[in-house]
Records
---
Amino acid sequence: RGMRVAVVGAGVSGLTATKCCLDEGLEPTCFEQSQDIGGVWRYTEHVEAGRPSLYPSVISNTSKEMSAFSDFPFPEDFPVFLPNAQLLDYLQRFAEHFSLREHIKLGTTVVSIRKHPDFATTGQWNVVTEAGGKQTSHVFDAVMVCSGNFSEPSLPLHCFPGIERFQGQYFHSRQYKHPDTFQGKRVLVVGMGNSGVDIAVEASRVAAKVTISTTRGSWLLSRVFEHGYPWDMVLNTRLMNLIKTNLPRPLLWWFMNYKLNQRFNHENYGLQPEKRYFLPVLNDDLPSYILTGRITIKPGVKEFKDNSVVFHNCPEEEPIDIVVFCTGYNVSFPFLEESVIRVENKHASLYKYVFPTHLQKPTLAVLGLIKPIGGIMPVAEMQARWVSRVFKGRGANVSPPVSQNAAQTGHVLFGLTFDEILKTEWLVYLDTLASFIGAKPSVLGLLCTDPWLALTIFFGPCSPYQYRLRGPGRWEGARQAILTQWDRVLKPTRTRVPAASSSSFPSLLTVMGFLLLLAAVIFAF
């Protein structure tokens, strides 16, 4: 019999984990507590305990070409940024196409995962699940934890003096579904993550007044980026990455400042972030809503009064009726013992954000906990490809350092707070894991054999298909998918005039790129 792997959760990470196990000849069983697959992308009208909660208007922050699983492009007629229902549809198609459903047990909750008594030699785990009120125990050879981090809301009320005397209504963004709650009300949104800004924008269409309170400010990106291209297809390229990783810090800071302030000056809009590098927020409407007075940006909350709020450095009180706390989520693994994954002040101690650093055997992995500036799906998939090979014993050279000193230097403390300073360049992280399994594309190698592809890979967007050109899990369609990516981007929007060839963008890039390369070479010498 093959190696038996338990996969916890059937969202984005759980589905790709199940598929990667099958690709490596392992035997996955995926446990999903709710009644269907899709995780955070499956909208339900009611908030369910222990499950992520979505509001109906959620749209993906990353474009379809940069969010696809690497051997399964989105249908060409799907919009470039996906409403949640279409993203769920894609996940269902993915599950059908790779026959994943027969390996998924729905309505089954994982109650506990404990080391098997002879873990030190076998690396096995005792897994207890519950379905229909009945508990079952199993023994698995390995475990992939794909339960996500959007289930346990973080609501630190003790940080908001006076909240107990506030007469109005307040709730965590997880409870939010429809804007009609805000009809004619004065609304305060605390926190400026993606949900906070989304909710503020929606509220401002029906509310009397909307204020966003943010301690740190934030960079704001729009889905519609330079020349109307998707932001991630412009920013997440190998050329851009080369610039970002090789520029001296002050120069990089100037470059990012310049790039991000091109659309509007963040300082003038009260948004300039205090910390130097952290996750930008994605929203297309906020600047114009600030300009038209629908939304006001204020500093952090000092205290609440009966019917009002006082902000830091602002003497006057602001009357409010409803507060939405967009204060993020706690990471929790209720089914695991503390000793397996230590979560301290929202940090989990994980090698490459995946393997707990102090297990004797690398037979448990956590997927999809990382918050990169880029699509999470390709990242979860790459983690799953690596992990399934480690489980199988190929790639043993990357097992996490066990000895304490090695662990001190080798492991990374990963901050799971929204505003944690960016620890990981999306592309660098993907390349690192890809090189562990031999799937990293070689631009120089391709320059001799397939120059057009090499240039597209280097100057164009780093779409996930690049990681299927070689190595284990190589996909025949990868080259074609890369060369036609712009066609799939333009297909859903060029609906009035016949679509011409879309190669003008890459060729422009190529010219620019060569000039930049030339400059880089000159400056290097």
Note: The chain has two domains: 4-151+330-432, 155-222+263-327.
---
Amino acid sequence: MEKAAGSPSVGGSYPQKNAEILSSQYGINLFLAGLLLTFAWAVHAVGISKSHLLSYLITLMLIQLLWMLWYLCRSCTQRRLIRDKDRHAGARWLKCGITLFAVITLILDSFKIGYYIDFSNCLSPTEGIFPVTHAVHTILQVYFLWCHAKDIIQSFKTLERFGVIHSVFTNLLLWTNGVLTESKHQLNEHKERLITLGFGNITIVLDDHAPQCNCTTTTLCSIFSQGIYYLYPFNIEYHILASTMLYVLWKNIGRKVEHHQQHKTPFKFHGITVGMIFGLIVLTSTIAIVVVYLIQIGRSKIKSELALTMFYLHAIFVLALMCTAGIVALLIYRLEDRSLDNSKNPARKLDAELLVGTAAGSWLLSWGSILAIICAQAHPKYTWYNLPYSVLVIIEKYIQNLFIIESIHREQEKVNDDIKTLRIVTISRGSTLSLTPSYKEIYNGRAACDSGEVPCLFKGSIGGRENGDGGATEETSQENSSVMHSASDFSFYNRNSVANNKRRILKNIAAFLFLCNLSLWIPPAFGCRPEYDNGLEEIVFGFEPWIIVVNLAMPFSIFYRMHSAASLFEVNCKT
């Protein structure tokens, strides 16, 4: 009988598992086809133009738009139904972050439209259709994620799997296209800078995709063309965040969740002043370093070397502080005895996998720099600063990953929110006696005596009246109870103060690391990339091989910093 009862469950889960496999394979093939098309355009393959690539991306976005409209319409017709929600997915701060990136992406699309209008004589119509389609896609997708990122889909599951996975890989292809376009622009600038550093033996051939006609308004064309590349980092982050949120939605399709009370973890500035101050100092100094770096690099050999030295020294100092903060946080965790939450959570699992996976991009670049320093025959003075910098990058990510992953897996302190104050009122000799144990006593189980029936003071008062000795016995009982409460309060406050100090230190560390990761996201995102400008790696590995490595690893390194900042924000709210 038990086997017969269990067989429907097995039979029912098999088609869904099959649909999951089929949809994932569909998405991967969709992505690989687009990836090869992107690569073919990048290397100027015969018969492949930018219009072919844009036509493919436009088609994918239109299909996703149709699916999202269908899902939204179906949700409106079923809005009275109670639906399961994943409380860990689609946090409000994550939605606010993706909205900010989406707004800047819309500005980027408007720049592209203006750029197309100025060069309309020699550009394909797809270059004008693409930003319009992309803008509509961005607006509807952000609305969709705000309303349905937490959904656990239980109907039309097979169809929804294909729709969601299509959306995931569409965003990944748009991310790939943005990364490639931005990388080609950075590579052109990098080739021009290498001459000023004395690497004249490297062949400088610019990879130019500029329109072959004159602009109608030169000033506007310059603004559009330069502004586009400064806005690409935000567009890149937008698409990778959207793809991760949609992936969690895909993993949640058909999932069974336990219904329990949701604990909200709002962000509070209280108690993190020290971490915020130090973090803002790092952020301000990093912005100043990036500005000076971009001004000085490429102007002359001396100025370029000074810019690289300045960058390395600043980065070494910041990374050393981050390593120290991470070690202190891990030591505090070792002193605490709190269990880990190992329940099934697709969002948390994805966060941990992304941290380790994207950190590999920085580790690859760091090990490449270390090997170049060891193997190079000649070492300009500024290249020696690259050695401690590369070593610290490896160590810092290792420590920070341990801290973040353990933090998001630690169980929160369970506090009974329904009981804030216990007030017991009894009539004693015609007067009202209000006895209110503190919330701290209630939380630690000290509000009840050994019998667990009445508070200690109340019991003492009753005992005094039963003795019949009048005020003397009652006062003695109350004094003994008062002494007992004083001792327990002293022990409680002693432990509580230590726990609060640990918690305050952890929140300050999380706030400091949050701002530091935002700071370290800025340099590579806006063109401050010593891996390009150092020159030593190109001599050891060869120009083309090293540029390929950098172009593959750098996007993951940039995403790591933004994802770490988002995870640390969650850690700060949770601590």
Note: Confidence is low (pLDDT under 50) at residues 1-12, 415-469.
---
Amino acid sequence: FHGLKYAGLVSHGGVRRSKISPVLQHCTLLWAYGISWSAPVGSAHDDPVLSKPDIYGESSDEISPIYSLWAIWALKYFLSVEESEDNELQFLDMVPWYSGTSADLFKTLFDLLVSVTVFLGRFDMRMMQATMNDSHDGARQEDFLYDHFSEKKEFWFDFMADTCDGGNSSYSVARLLAQPSLDARMNDDLIPLPRGNLLLIGGDLAYPNPSTENYEKRFFYPFEEALQPPSWYNKKHLAVNKPELPIGFFDLRQYDGPQSFVIPGNHDWFDGLQTFMRHICQKSWLGGWFMPQKKSYFALQLPKGWWVFGLDVALHNDIDSFQFKFFSELIRDKVKESDSVIVMTHAPNWILDSYWNNENDETGKNVSHLICDYLNGRCKLRIAGDLHHYMRHSRVQSENPAMVQHLLVNGCGGAFLHPTHVFGNLIKAYNSTYETKAAYPSFQDSRKIALDNILLFRKENWQFDFIGGSIYFILTFSMFPLCKLDHILQDDTISGHTNNFFSAVWDAFMYMVGYHSLYEWYQTVENEYIPDPMVRARIEQWTFGLYPTCIKYLMSAFDVPEVMVVTRTNICKNGMASLSRGSAILYYASVFPYFWVLSTPVASLVFGMYLYICINWLHLHFDEAFSSLRNPDYKSFTRLHIKEDGNLEVFTLAVDKVPKEWNVDSAWNNETEQQHQFSHQRFHPSKWSAILQDPIETVKIVDSFVINKRDEAEMSK
């Protein structure tokens, strides 16, 4: 029994505490049977595999003492290995977008080309989802419509997007989402906000491409560490008949744990949505969040007449005809005139159209048609991700009818930060003007962060040297060599002394790397040890002239500065045509290392300055200028609350600084796990806590507002 307790198989009450492999169970039972190391440990009837014939070749019912000692050692060893693996973080770094050596980025480019040329306009997974559905009534398709939340008196739910870039940032947000309640600071007050019953994720689940490895390591792993899936759940299991409810539940309305619904983003579409379908629509758990979702788009009927439309806009930022048919018929048959709708898409076309001056030729025309002509004022809020910051634009009162009241983008779920200051304070959409009410980070902070392109570009993107140095050399190699530069130092002006000084330095440098310097050194050594010139002449004669020639060229190959100087002198005297192809290749190969050392820091500095000027002065390249920084900070998500009176409260919670060092949370470790207990029922559901500045302690509210459902008026706190 004490052996079983040591292995964690049972507690004092006899309840199984942790999962352990059969081999370790076998060793533990063997240890528990033992009386002493010198006496027979048990009987072969108890465990015939470990009987003496297996070792000594003799017949006996006794288990070998040697085997028992081995079992004890194996038990301790494997337990220590298992414990070390469980207590080791496996968070990945932020994606190096400017790396010239990343296979992931080349695969991303290839997948994007394939998606655009093959899938887009030729094969659409959304069309297949619709045609494979059994029902032909768009408003009653069970695979797309979920109404199990609709009878609750009040309802909390969360929204996040663009997660799973770096592990630290993704886990920080997931840890906040997993807590039973958060005390978020707003001004000088602490506002208690309970965990959402529903988690909406707005796409881009893994960077840079939607591979199985990226989904598992960058998306699922941080969420599983923040809120563990049930102990009986097999991660390899494919859910073919969703929803696969936990044991003891027969209807989605009975299950009171957190659930998650997800729409794909552009990065999820790079492989034609294949990985998204396998991991979202054919899996039942995202950590401790239950996933009943079957398709890539859906409609959720929430309490008090609220709805969420999760749209899949694929790579061209619009819904297809089958999707339009489903939502238009749903509006006709299910959505009442007094209801309110939240439309969720991946891309915030209202901001991007304004930024690219596409207001007269807006993207997402089918989405706009659905909102303006079918919802006709019932869309109170649009939410999206894609841009990795938080911004809210609210409608300015006018005579035009209000198609949408608020436009909200929050893509701070874990990806690198995007700027806010490059986007206009006023934008036009749906024949109305919208004004910026909140931005995170602030415009001022956003400008300051852009300065890091000058200071930190090479530090964050040192692999860019492979690209930058090569490109610069290709652009300038035809200029080598530059001859007749001595006239620069021939000057009789007042600055002559200074020029003479630099001339002396130059001469010293040329002497150091001068003509045949390495071979001349060898000749001095040779004269010292073989002083007789006749002997050297005979050696040259006996070797048919190979002796000095081979040594000369061999040392020239190792003496790179000499190769450069000799070849340069030859080129300047006789022209480039005088060199053979091999000599020219040798010359450029000699120049390249020196050019690399001198040019790569300059290349990174020039490129960083270019990005800084573009982003802060010209408001261009917002994606390129901030992806270079790989900034994991300024993370946020939005928590929404449908009150009993039907009004919608909206809070955006944020942390300025993302921790980089974590320890196993002692509160999580000490909390007793009961049999069949779900992780969301724990007071401390997350495994890791930050060593310094834990997000739970630093979380704050950066924006809050209320949508009053009764008279459609907005009240700002």
Note: Confidence is low (pLDDT under 50) at residues 1-63, 135-140, 712-717.
---
Amino acid sequence: KAHVSFKPTMAQQRKCPTCSSTAVDGNFVVQYDVNRESTGGELEIFNGYFIHFFAPENLDPLPKNILFVIDVSGSMWGLKMKQTIEAMKAILSELRAADQFSLIDFNHNVRCWRDNLVSATPAQVEDAKKYIQTIHPNGGTNINEALLRATFILNEAKSLGMLDPNSVSMIVLVSDGDPTVGELKLTTIQKNVKQSIKDEFSLFCLGIGFDVDYDFLQRIATDNRGMAQRIFGNQETSAQMKNFYNQVSTPLLKKIQFNYPQESVSDVTQSSFHNYFGGSEIVVAGKVDTENLQHLESIVTATAANAELVMETLRDVEELDGFMKKDKYADPDFTRKLWAYLTVNQMLAERNTAPTAALKRNITKSILQMSLDHHIVTPFTAMLIENPEKDEIMLADQPKDPRRGCCQGTLGLTPNAPNNNKGIPAWANVTAVPVSFMPEQRSPPVSSLSINRVDNDPHFIIHLPRSQRNICFNINSEPGKILNLVSDPGTGVAVNGQLVGAKKMENKKLNTYFGKIGFYFKKKGLKVEITTETITLKDGSYGITLTWSDTGHIIRKQLLISVKKENNVTITVGEEMSFMVLLHRVWKNHPVNVDFLGIYIPPENQFSPAAHGLIGQFASEPEVYIHHQRPGQAPEKPQATMEVKGNKLTVTKGLQKDYRTDRVLGTDVQCWFVHNSGKGFIDGHYKDYLVPTLYSFLKKP
């Protein structure tokens, strides 16, 4: 164990030498190493797993052949270009005399500072710095041609015998955007570069800013024996670039191979490496049958600056077992955890370069299984944090947008989620697909059509369970107005929807839709606001927000919010009640329509007798008598007389839509339509249901 303390003085904390305000602002980095017993690395064996740490010292650096490929398109203008130039000047100063290098800058065109590699003499380095200083960003981004030009220079140098056989060749790409000129298809660029490099050298990628397609840079780097790193375009861009370069600037070994000759060894993680860089460490892990093995032997072969190296290590299987059992700070399961972590990382790299979608899906399944079996957070799983009382689980991290290389439906709750949360209710998923990561719903199944809903512009459908009828009505109000849907002082629940208007009128009428829906759970002190962009939970000053591009869950005070990406949100309060909000997306350039929300509420919700609102009032089902059915103006729309709440109304039979199974076309629902904004069916006038805020309760008329 070790204790690390940091006690900055007041002067060190000042934002500037003359500032009075202070802040601890920066990265706190602790670097550590351990004593190493031999050049062959250190072997640790415990509980059926071994870990091999390899970080040899006292080796001379290998010469390197390096091509810097720099994006100088218009998007690099300003601070990003200034910081890149400063970083490149510093990097060029660190080149060794045995190194060879050149520079390529590109926008819609590709330019070479030199058409071939040159030695890193002081004169050449100084000339390269002057060249970089003259760069002025403009134009588009032709990544394909720039990388192919770089690979051509390295391949030509090798074919002409200009490269030291023991040297390491690499390309460093610096870019902030997607291709806009030349070849635009990312898979084609990846294929072209792979075919040109031919596993002869490495490609390292630096993605600057938030607009860059970082997943693409990761794929193309991993595919070509390199790695990628995102650089945030700010005042620290220069330092971040130099730190990345330092990781790859000192190659010490190449063609490293790890061998474990015993038959008792299996499931070894990546065991061959193209390069080893100074300041880093290679870690290999695997399973070992300790019952039939007294010693584990490793043989590492590699190419160094002046010789071929063979390094051997022998480890007593029992030696570490005894130490782990005695030391109170030791984690007896660390070997298994580290093996699983390395295996998952290896599979992630394999997934990035998978040639087919089917293979990628299979690798993803394996990653998910490893993640769940060994409790490892990956890009396809989430991390949730449980409070000490075990009654709250909060989302701490979640999968990325599936369109950027991830997959849907991979976010799960921890196995010991509170038992009083029964998961997503069956009615919210009409197709009744089992949700394996949620506790099973125990309430009786609900008919797919037996539900109250408000959707489209806005159409209300009230299901009356006793009479097995659906009654419909529309509300025609103004954009910005807030309608109360449920107001239940008994349970302390209020649900309100704010209207948004279409972009313009059609047939002298402006259609309105729900653009925002608010839920207030007064007894829990929780508020939920759902818009067409975000889903926000508020608990006093605390708040957490998900977007519709997420798939995830939030649990707080026994209230579960479950988001299904670009589809719906379900809110579940124990077994007492549940709600679903459905998202409708339209073409963003549509001349009339806008994005909007629909809300679905099952009549089985356990509201109190005091419940009211446009939907809540029907928690106590009114007596409805429909008779004297007769032809209407259209043959498919007969009329009838409906008696309800002491009123006689003329109603029309027709179809409305349930969008839970098909958000585009919907499912037809037969209902009796009440005209004049539901007058006579609802209590009072629809204007009686207007409230001032998204979280207001309604005073019963």
Note: Residues 459-689 form one domain.
